[in-house]
Amino acid sequence: MLIFIILLTLILWYLYRFYSSLSDLPPGPLPIPIVGNLLSFVNVDRWEDKLVEWKQKYGDVFTIHIGLQRFVTVNSYKAAVKYFVKDGDSYTSKLTNDINEAIRGGKYGVIDTDGQLWLEQRRFALKVLRDFGLSKAQMEQRVLYEVEYIQDQIDSRINRGDKNINVEKYTDIAVGSIINAVLFGYRYTDGNEAEFYLLKETLSAGTERFSSVWGTFLAINSSLLTGTIAKPFLKYLTEKFAKVFDNLLKQIEEHKLNNDYSNQSTEAKDFVDAYMIEKCRLESNVEYNTTFSEKQLANVCLDLWVAGQETTSVTLTWTISYIVNHPETLNRKHKQNWIG
């Protein structure tokens, strides 16, 4: 009986602490301890519809709970500018994730880092991407080359009499070729397409695992579950991504064999070259504590893939599909005197 009373007291104390702490946060749907608001997303086809529903009920800024983690969501342009543009320095920290760090081999990359590491790596990546043709004629030529590739592939299928064509297959590899040319200096061809599909399938597998309700719960609350029910989940992802990192590090090693990065007059032909040249320059200054490393480089390359590949490919595929089904849209576009 005493044990029951103690347990009941602890539970009531926890519930009191849990719900009383909500008063310090913006309003939002009432969470369940440990689970949070996750049950609201079960059997919901589009999570964003639920967020829109809560926005209409609680306003542009509201709080939701995913497991033990609390998230304040910002749901309007005006609020986003207020918090992330005018006061951006106050919101640069990011949620740490044990599963993500296990996959990456530590705190690496740009997407999931903050502080000096994020600042230095982000600044360098943006500079190099600008230097290698973003918003320049050089990038336009790369894009036009891949557009011709997509057209040739579709025309070939049509000439063979195919009525059903999976356009995404071609937009996928075309976008991948542009990204890979910037990162490693070459596009994908019949001889090396396996590299692309390894990366594509791994990213898709990770997205699939993380996009489910309980996958999201495990990812966000990984510190609570690591070593228990999250262990198979973690093992699956680390094994998948290990193959990707092996391939990325292999390409970095090949670059090292073919270049003398200690020679600061070496001309960078791609992102890896530029990164390794900068790494050697910083390491020559023994007083400078650099965040540059080959493992970090592999993670930055992965981040650039994650940021650019699927989003661009899906958008292009949707656009092509829309134009095929609504050709009048393209006709109206052709009648415009200017674009921009």
UniProtKB/TrEMBL annotation:
Q: Does the keyword ATP-binding apply?
A: no
Q: Which UniProt keywords are listed?
A: Iron, Metal-binding, Monooxygenase, Oxidoreductase
According to its UniProt entry, the protein's GO biological process terms are:
organic acid metabolic process; xenobiotic metabolic process
Q: Which InterPro entries match?
A: Cyt_P450 (IPR001128), Cyt_P450_E_grp-I (IPR002401), Cyt_P450_sf (IPR036396), Cytochrome_P450_fam2 (IPR050182)
The name of this protein is Uncharacterized protein
Which molecular function terms from Gene Ontology are attached? heme binding; iron ion binding; oxidoreductase activity, acting on paired donors, with incorporation or reduction of molecular oxygen, reduced flavin or flavoprotein as one donor, and incorporation of one atom of oxygen
Q: Name one GO cellular component term.
A: cytoplasm
Family classification:
Belongs to the cytochrome P450 family.
Give one Pfam hit by family name: p450
Q: What is the lineage of its organism?
A: Eukaryota, Metazoa, Ecdysozoa, Nematoda, Chromadorea
